[in-house]
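A common beginner's mistake is to predict each chain separately and then try to dock the pieces by hand. The better habit, illustrated here, is to supply every component at once so that their relative placement is modeled jointly.
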Amino acid sequence: MRLILVSNRLPVQWDGTPSVGGLATGLSSFLSHWKSLGNEVLWVGWPGKSIPEKEQKKYSEQMEKEYGTIPVFLKQKLADFFYNGFCNKTIWPLFHYFTAHCEYSDLTFQSYEEANEEFAQTVAKIYQPGDWVWVHDYHLFLLPGLLRNIFPNIFISFFLHIPFPTFEIFRLMPERFRTKILNGLLGSDLIGFHTQSYTQYFLRTLLRCLGIENERGVVYHQNHLTKTGAFPMGINVEQFSNYAKSKECAEIANSINRNHKDLKQILSVDRLDYTKGVLQRLNAFDLFLKENPHWIRKCKFVLVLVPSRTDVSSYQSMKRAIDEKVGSINGIYGTLDWTPILYQYKGFPFEELVPLYKNTHVMLVTPFRDGMNLVAKEFLVSQDSGMLVLSEMAGASAELPEAILVNPNDLKSISEAIREAIEMPKEEIQNRNQIMIKRLSENSVKDWAEKIFHETEEAATKNLSFQTKSISPNSEQLLPNANKPIFIIFDYDGTLVPFQSLPHLAIPYPELIENFKKLLSLKNVTIAIISGRDRTFLENHFGDFPIHLVAEHGAWHKPPNIQNWNSLFTSSGEWKSQILNHLNEFTKRVPGSFTEEKDFSLVWHFRNADPDIGLNAAREMLDELSQVSSNSGFFVQRGNKIIEVREYGTGKGKAALKILPNDDMNIFIFGDDATDEDMFREMPEPAITVKIGKSETMAKYRFKSPNEVQIWIKNLINYLEGKNETP
Ligand code: GDG
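With all components supplied together, the output reads:
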């Protein structure tokens, strides 16, 4: 299979130098494995600078040939507004909870849209059906949606490398931006996050911003299913640990250490970024020396900062503040023969980075917020007996609780953690590290990518079967055999009419009435409405039509041209008063919700409640009622923003069977929610069953909206009228 990886940056920059950072390092090792299985890979991304138009063709050919990369060309101004602008002045700070650093600008968002569009065009040029497209990170939130519009059946995953924030933070972004971002993401078959918490925050955000619910992490939106889940990214454990054990590594480690052999090494390695908490770490080291003077001249702090986003002004001022702080600590504590901080403002090749890890006694990873943090993991599998001090705000802390976890805002706790780690007995360090290393070995970067692949495949397969169910209302497959009578059963809300905020507002509109009149004027056509509505509502709106009306999911039936309603089922109704009190308690608790009482059922509506509070209460209610419902004369069913408690033995499926004549007929059934699934399930096989809307269904076909039901009715009328006219 061919994999098209898409990320903002390519693993090699425009000048052929390798990119630094978690994404590039992590993915490179997975790709060698993927290729070794005989698969092909193309990596699409921005080369990091604008390439003049006349050189683009030659450059593309060269990059593809040498590195298997496909450049996306962005004009310098667009790249600047997109990357330095919306990506790094809006999304990056917001998603890392640095809300004061955020700028919200229509101009940069427009560039973000344009850049995503450029990426979509580049992918579209090389995409072939059967490829797996894997989009990475926050620069490309809109890309899955754009690609899904071009290729409805595309097989596509998205992985977010940074944290997804809580809804309260995410909502700070203007609605016109955030809605597009969420919709763009939902073009994916799978959206992966580093941790369970980020996944939960995303799902809650979907509910709060777009009113979209999920079923155990699966979201149905615009006739498409998207799976979400936590896939903590691993590292190439073997690569690091094998090299760390090698003779070559030991030699380099010794030579680096030659002049400081007796000093215990404290190390930190980060891209220079305000989220990484570098200044705070320096302050904590300062405090550590102040409070533990016996460690002066006995330790050294190797501070590795890899230059990053050097043209963003806030990064430049942060760099100055760090330089000053290093200078100040070295000035205060340093002597002619001892410097407390060895400051390295540059990246090291892998062959030197691992020996640095190996020489380390205390590894400080103290970001304010970090999606995962791979440095912590790389250190663990490379060290000899070094202790990890890890921020609890790094995604990695969920997997590495045996480290010393610290709050990065708490200087005192970091300083104490340094002392605890530097003085910790070797055996204890090794015991703790062994547990963590075992865990890391069981979830390498290869396992991580494979899991993502398989989960995406599963979601994409389901989506494909969804697509095959979707059908045009004008399709010939939905036309009857004109020699047989026609029996059509419609659900009402969500099928004949769209949902409204209050049930009494969802009334039949003139076009629907007109269509019914025409249908009924034709020979051999019978219509039934089987609804959860009560008798009065159906009587008021459809009482004059010669059709079957079935109210309250089958409790009451009024045949065509008959004045009286009769009961299709017998009821004891003993359970009702007790459950009514219970539902009323929920109504009091959840503003905007209300309870509807019918003859054979009770319905709790939460469409107008706060989506989060409504959904939580509905879950609680379902849970409680399901526990008492067995042998209690009622059963509970979840509908569209309602919970219905109904007399046992009733239901639309049974009701439909009772009113259907035993003749050989064309049977059509239309419905939109869980209560209609009863009908789809119980109908004889030749019946044509159509689900309106998203979510899984037993129906044979799917329409997008009630509007398509009306189109189908009109098409049927035309067809039958045409047949009648032919001599
Ligand atoms: C983002 C998220 C998430 C660093 N210095 C050198 C060097 N590195 C390599 C490390 C490591 C990577 O860069 C840094 O990865 P991190 O995970 O620590 O951080 P970000 O770059 O911010 O990455 C992060 C990650 O994406 C993956 O999803 O974990 O939370 O922010 O692999 O080894 N490599 C070499 N020399 C260096 O000097 N060779």
